[in-house]
Write a structure and sequence with these properties.
The protein is α+β, with helices and mostly antiparallel strands. Helices cover 44% and strands 21% of the residues. The chain has a 5-stranded antiparallel beta sheet with strand order 2-1-5-4-3. It has a 5-stranded antiparallel beta sheet with strand order 7-6-10-9-8, with helices on both faces. β6 and β7 form a beta hairpin. α12 packs across α15 and α13 runs parallel beside α14 (444-460). Residues 1-13, 507-514 and 557-572 have low confidence and may be disordered.
């Protein structure tokens, strides 16, 4: 197998005997196999020194595939040290062992001097004294690179998964790719202001990194360079230069000093790849080879893209983690603030009760306490209502009763409701409305609630005797309403998140009216449900704030419009027999007492079963029935009452803490005539009873 191939003159084949013919045919088959086989094949003669140490080898035979897989031409008769002086000694030891022992061996090893990986099978051929070795090998460089890159990228992913902030994530990416994938790696990101900022630059040699870092940062990438970071940012497409020509360095250089620097770095090849997430380019990863001599290929571009994708995912995960951490922190702050805000009105209510008990004969003191308790109770109700409204909006369950209303009616409603707070603080309020009526399509109550929150915030976050203005003007198809104050203002870094849930401008202990951080969230959600937008503006802390609401104008300005509700209490009029069924005894008895003072005859029960029996015995005109009752819930109690001949004409009113649309639907289906949310407003209850009197008269 290791002897030179003999070629025969086909013209003399007639003189051969059968044995010669058979030998010739065998040699011909071997020649064809030798020259056409896909594997590289060679026969080498191992050369030993006087100490019998293998020091070189000479090529005896090679096939065409040998040249294709090694890139070595005209190898026959040449020594390997001549071709690749830096070939590792382990290859000579490997072949020398086979030549001496005659064993057959197979290995997968890199030949760094050739820049390739080979799968090698080697065996001795011919007589031992010839020290010839036959070598069959396959170039597995591409497979090995894929395996290495797969392990490398998997390692990158594992490392990135542990990081929890975007900055350290990007710095980790740069440190991981040097030196396995690049000699230099830089990460440039676009900051919120649209400016390019270098987050990281890494080189395997700290000395070189220190020498070049300042100079590299001194010369920003040229925007007109087609192989630059700004170009990749603009196009969103990567840039691969398998070989960096001098023309590219010339185009990138700012001046001669910069050009000398670039050339001194010995740059060989580069890949610029965008970091993209959700269709937006966040930054650029730069990979550069220099002293390693490696040249990037399209296969390396695939790896670079993968790394950039994983970096983008890691950044997104880090941002989500930070958002969750921030949300958790804000939730804790919210719960602490909620406890504080609930205690604020509860304390004066308790004090007022004590005053009324101790000074029952002092009519003036009792009246002052009553008025104060009523205000504080209203504050409690608003807190709970805001919480419920945010929950309903987040779940898509807030029902708006849209109609054509005048903007003036909406703003007047908000101003009148907020006026006590504004006057209490001594603020000056000015309201400027358009001369012509402006009609919008809105839920008057809900939209007024949004403007009320803005006015209350202006009053809370302004020092005493401040100035608050409400200005509305028509702008094309929209109307723009500005609520401006001269209060504590909003810092620039707080403006982007000012409408986020539980976000508060000022959390200092000095601000006793800090609120829950849900008011502005509610404002934005309500305005957006009306097809509008809201924007916060401020020149900074201490310089006041402005909230600008933009709403679409309804075209049919002449259509009938809604006006503000008449809040005058209904007259007592005719009395009713009223049954109150409520498991909270204080709640039941206080409601019954209020109804009795109005001239009605009342009774109470404290669970569902007793309530049904009491209704059957008392035969009331009206039943105020709680839903969450022990023994028998309000729905079942209502169905039982409606199922009796005497219960068909009763007026059944659900009184519950649940006020979402689904709860109202369930109460209707159970047989209730009306649905009221706790705490029941006396005015609303009196108005409902007055309506019953009118219907019965």
């Amino acid at each position: 197998m290791g002897q030179p191939i003999r070629y025969h003159d086909e013209g003399r084949s007639a003189d051969r005997n059968p044995a010669d013919e058979a030998l010739h045919a065998s040699e011909e088959r071997f020649r064809i196999l030798f020259e056409t086989m896909g594997e590289g094949y060679c026969v080498i003669e191992v050369i030993f020194d006087e100490a019998n140490k293998p020091i070189d080898y000479r090529f005896v035979e090679t096939n065409p595939a040998f040249e294709r897989q090694t890139g070595i031409k005209d190898a026959k008769g040449r020594r390997m040290r001549e071709i690749a002086p830096d070939l590792e000694q382990h290859w000579f030891d490997f072949y020398g062992q086979i030549a001496l022992t005659g064993e057959t061996r197979r290995v997968e090893n890199p030949a760094a001097a050739l820049g390739r990986w080979y799968d090698v099978s080697a065996f001795r051929v011919g007589a031992p004294e010839l020290r010839h070795v036959g070598v069959v090998f396959n170039d597995i460089t591409d497979r090995k690179r894929i395996e290495e890159m797969t392990r490398f990228v998997a390692g990158v992913s594992a490392a990135l998964a542990e990081l929890t902030d975007p900055e350290s994530t990007l710095q980790k990416v740069a440190s991981l790719v040097v030196p396995p994938f690049a000699d230099w790696c830089a990460v440039d990101m676009v900051d919120p202001g649209g400016r390019l900022r270098r987050v990281a630059i890494i080189h395997a040699d700290p000395v070189k990194l220190g020498a070049y870092r300042d100079l590299l940062e001194r010369y920003p990438p040229r925007t007109e360079d087609p192989h630059s970071i700004p170009h990749v940012l603009a196009t969103g497409e990567p840039d691969l230069l398998e070989v960096i020509p001098d023309s590219v360095l010339d185009a990138a250089a700012h001046d001669e000093a910069h050009l000398r620097l670039l050339k001194a770095m010995g740059l060989k090849s580069h890949i610029l790849v965008p970091i993209r997430a959700h269709g937006r380019t966040l930054g650029v990863l730069t990979f550069i080879t220099a002293e390693s001599g490696r040249r990037y290929t399209p296969a390396d571009l695939v790896v670079a893209r993968d790394i950039a994708h994983r970096a983008a995912v890691a950044i997104r995960n880090a941002e989500l983690y930070q958002a969750l951490q921030d949300a958790d922190r804000r939730k804790d702050e919210f719960l602490a603030t909620l406890a504080h805000e609930l205690r604020n009105p509860l304390a004066p209510i308790r004090n007022g009760l004590e005053v009324m008990k101790l000074a029952s004969d002092n009519r003036e003191a009792v009246e002052r306490s009553r008025a104060m308790m009523e205000r504080q109770l209203g504050q409690l109700v608003r807190l709970v209502d805001d919480l419920m409204d945010v929950s309903r909006i987040n779940q898509g369950k807030l029902e708006l009763r849209m109609e054509r209303v005048e903007l003036a009616a909406v703003l007047n409603s908000a101003v009148e409701t907020s006026r006590p707070l504004i006057e209490q603080a001594g603020h000056e309020l000015t309201v400027v409305l358009p001369h012509e009526p402006v009609v919008i399509y809105a839920d008057l109550t809900r939209l007024a609630q949004a403007f009320l929150n803005l006015l209350n915030n202006a009053a809370k976050y302004s020092d005493g005797a401040g100035r608050i203005s409400v200005t509305a003007e028509r702008q094309g198809k929209d109307v723009v309403v500005s609520v401006r104050d001269a209060g504590i203002g909003i810092a620039a870094e707080q403006l982007p998140g000012i409408f986020d849930l539980f976000s508060q401008v000022d959390r200092s202990l000095e601000k006793s009216q800090g609120g829950l951080g849900i008011g502005l969230t509610l404002v934005r959600r309500l305005v957006e449900r009306h097809g509008g937008t809201v924007e916060a503006r401020s020149d900074g802390a201490g310089k006041g704030s402005e909230f600008v609401v933009r709403l679409p104008v309804f075209v049919a300005a002449s259509a009938p419009t809604a006006t503000v509700d008449d809040r005058a209490p209904a007259s007592p009029g005719k009395s009713f027999r009223i049954m109150v069924v409520e498991d909270n005894r204080d709640g039941a008895e206080s409601l019954a007492a209020m109804l009795s003072i109005m001239g009605n005859e009342t009774r109470t029960a404290y669970d569902g079963l007793d309530g049904v029996r009491a209704v059957e015995e008392f035969r009331p005109d009206v039943v105020l029935l709680d839903i969450g009752l022990p023994k028998l819930n309000g729905y079942e109690a209502c169905r039982h009452i409606r199922g009796q001949p005497w219960g068909k004409e009763l007026v059944l009113i659900a009184v519950t803490g649940w006020g979402q649309d689904e709860d109202r639907r369930r109460s209707r289906e159970a047989g209730f005539d009306h649905h009221m949310v706790k705490p029941v407003e006396p005015h609303a209850l009196m108005k409902l009873l007055a309506g019953l009197r009118t219907a019965n008269s």
